[in-house]
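ingest -> fold -> write
write: protein_1
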Amino acid sequence: MILVIKISGEGLSENNEKYTESILASISEQIKILLKEGHQIALMIGGGNLFRGKELAGVLGIARTTADYIGILATVQNALVLRDYLESTNISVRVSSAIAMPQVCEEYIPKRVARHMEKGRVVIFAGGIGLPYFSTDTCAAQRALEINADLLIMAKNDVSGIYSADPKKDTSAKFIKEITASQAIKLNLNVADLAAMGLAKESGLTIKIIPTDKIDDALNPDIGSIIKPE
């Protein structure tokens, strides 16, 4: 299967660190398992552990678009860190950036990405889609559609799947095993960016929400929650 796995920037660390080696090691081992099973893997990485554009927008005279571009650059930094770490564990990796940076990574070209994945290389998408106002959730959905992925996996920290409310704040929150994108949007469930779910709904893309420590078991029907296009 062709799998796109979205990992938030915060998913690379814990305890307010920028990066935690034990977590990077866990991600590496899980990706190795999926590769050995014959899956083609692409990763979409966020930048929240380094910078969030919304936090700077309007401060110090910085425009929202500028703040978002700084956030986009944070995703490139994370992609380079993750690339080198994965390569140190003998995983072949390429970074594909929506913003041209030929000195440090490849420019995003869908057919080139597909070729890398066919050869067993992991591709890390960096730079979002190269535009402000788009979250990496939406970018992950966009890239998954462009490379004809079979499934978009969103790995979340400390979340086992979808709930009717925040289980940390509401003890009556119910676990939701399966839901349609339309229902998730209507209920305003905070599991993925609304634009990402809307794109998935319109284009027939299935999304699975799983814990970050269950990436290798993402295809297990007993793990996580499914958002179906309809």
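write: protein_2
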Amino acid sequence: MTAKLLRMASPDTHHITTPAQLAQLFGAVGEASVRKEVPHVHPHYRAMIEASPFAVLATSGPGGLDASPRGDAAGFVVVENPTTLLLPERRGNNRVDSLHNLVTDPRVALLFLIPGVGETLRVNGRAVISVEPALLQRFVVNGQPPRCVLVVTVETVYFQCARALQRSGLWEAVPSDRPAKVPTPGTILSALTDAAIDAQQYDSELPARQRDTLY
């Protein structure tokens, strides 16, 4: 019994649970890693945001955490001024998990990616959801305004080094077709609905549906 209890308890001895343990594990933060963080959008950071066609938006709310993709033509997130970003909310699946979180907790984090660039840009701040008509009109694409615009008040900005993207090979050549081991949306939905959704029909209709509802 004692040996069994020891086996059950032993993993806890390998858990990091305090800032002091983290400091001992990773060591001191380098000067560059500290000084690259600023409370505003520096002109060089603005250039990165304006070159980015893709970002991940992270939020927190009563239902938990959410991280979801945002993408459009490069520069779709507008730097209104050094402490304000504007992020249009386009059509999606209408779950609006991020927006549900924001109505109760304004904290946001954004991770900007730029194709071919190893460094990413991280922005932390607070956001409000705006449906001001004049603001929506600024983001009309193909005659369609966004559903709303997130007005983000910037608190911290810094770039992330390229190691993660270098290790992942994210910007290396991609296959011309879908990797065989990656299931299609229809395949996933069919499995999760006990075939109530037909995989083949869903996948065949999806490209046109996405194209027609892109904005």
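write: annotation protein_2
The two ends are 63 Å apart (CA to CA).
Residues 31-168 form a domain with the Pnp Oxidase; Chain A fold (CATH 2.30.110.10).
pipeline exit 0
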